[in-house]
């Protein structure tokens, strides 16, 4: 059984992407020159591939079977899972803000009660 060259798979997927190599690299948190080092690595780390997958909205587990196990072990979401829209992000933010204010008021109430008992 021949070993899968992860770097070649990365390069093939990147070439099919609508994004440029520069943009993919930046979105993954790497320099463009680093991408070219990565594409030549047969045993490229799954963590690195995952970052590129997120940058390109690509699930590498279709080409690399170990990727699915890696994502499960690390508690990572599949890069293809639906991303929140702007409105959904606002709603999520607002719900956390409301929760914060609720807890803050409860905390202030408890502090006030504690000082009144003295």
As an assembly, this protein is single chain
Largest sheet: none
CATH class of the largest domain: Mainly Alpha
Radius of gyration: 22 Å
Helix content: 55-70%
Average the pLDDT over all residues and give the rounded result. 91
* Total separate domains: 2
CATH structural architecture of the largest domain: Orthogonal Bundle
What keywords describe this structure?
118 residues, mainly alpha, 2 domains, 66% helix
How would you describe the overall organization of this protein?
- The mean pLDDT is 91.
- The chain folds into two domains: 69 residues, 434 Repressor (Amino-terminal Domain), CATH 1.10.260; 35 residues.
- The protein is mainly α and 118 residues long.
- The longest helix is centred in the C-terminal third of the chain and has 31 residues.
- The protein is 66% helix and 0% strand.
- It starts with 5 loop residues before the first helix and ends with a helix.
- The radius of gyration is 22 Å and the shape is elongated.
